Amino acid sequence: MDQSDVIIVGAGAAGLSLAHHLVGTDGPGAPPTVTLVDALDEALRPPERTWCFWEEGDGEFEDAVTASWRWLRVVGADGTGGSHRTSPYRYKMIRSTAFQELVERGLARHAGVRTVHADVDTVRDVRGGAEVGGTAAGGRRVTLRARWVFDSRPPRDLPRARSTLLQHFRGWFVRTETPAFDPDVALLMDFRTPQPRHGVSFGYVLPTGPDEALVEYTEFSPVPLTRDAYERRLRHYTREVLGLDSARVHRCEQGVIPMTDAVFPRRVGRSVFRIGTAGGATRPATGYTFAAVQRQSRAIAAAYRRGAVPVPPAPYPARARAMDAVLLRLLVRERVDGARFFTDLFENTPTARLLRFLDGGTRLWEDIAIGMRTPVLPMLRTAAELPLLPRRDRPARPVPASAADRSVVGP
């Protein structure tokens, strides 16, 4: 029987990050032997996508960073707004292909790491560990065993929740004939977009040069749009709002990220755990995931090296999850104007504090200070009713075939 110390199912951001930290973390004992199981079927592999996050200085994946910004701009529906300096942080963009290449080069230096290409259909506990079964090339069955298994595959169905929205988007990578962007400023939220009947929409512009940028249309709403609908909204935003009549589109990305107060179980067996989006690493109120994946991966690796049971920790503290649940309920019940809510939040809160809050790193007094900058009465009403609300299954709704889970950082 094929045996490893650790099996990681899925070679996306969460799977690659965990493998990277497991073999790179200093500590007692030798690093584990790791089998990374990557999907054989191309349809099961996520398409190339963009991950964004913020951190101080240069990080360990700096060689994969496509661009970064020290200023964030938020524009309200009326065109007002301002730019906010992110110091001491930088807002960074990583393309998934660059991240994969960087991490795989590092993993190749470790003899105890290997990759198996197979479509996994079973993950279960067995005596002494866990077993992963799947189908490899030519229909050959493979069975792998390890002391611990970490499954990063997105769940087929979301757990029961009180409130759920979808963050869905389509983006164009564009080039212009003349300089049209400020490479130092990321336009994080631009609410000069037609607002949906239920939910909130905004534009998102990440310049990668004076004449290049990723331009996205994003909605927080119950149901994704069709590809044609995204294209119409992007044309309107690019031409009518940004004035980029000559922009040429050379690549696209599209995705759906769940925004939910559902509880994602991180331990699903004696030796089986879930990580990444499947393990609750997506921030419910924003869709950001990449930084939480790194925190979760580091903690798992540290626990393994200590000889402890490597249960993935909750990526965000309980207080942050509770505040997210309130915000989601506010948006679902339409008790606040979403565009005004987010615009005011950035205008009235120090940017560094707000970024720490979005990463779940603020202290209680900072959370209270941020909460006082929001519509207090709707927030208090919603906070009071949440404990009385049952968690329910989300009704099945169609998702366009072109939509892919960006799982991971969001807007």
Automatic annotation (TrEMBL):
Spans through the membrane: none
Compositionally biased intervals (Low complexity): 399-411
Residue ranges, annotated region (Disordered): 391-411
Source domain of life: Bacteria
Entry-linked InterPro entries: FAD/NAD-bd_sf (IPR036188)
This protein's name: Lycopene cyclase family protein
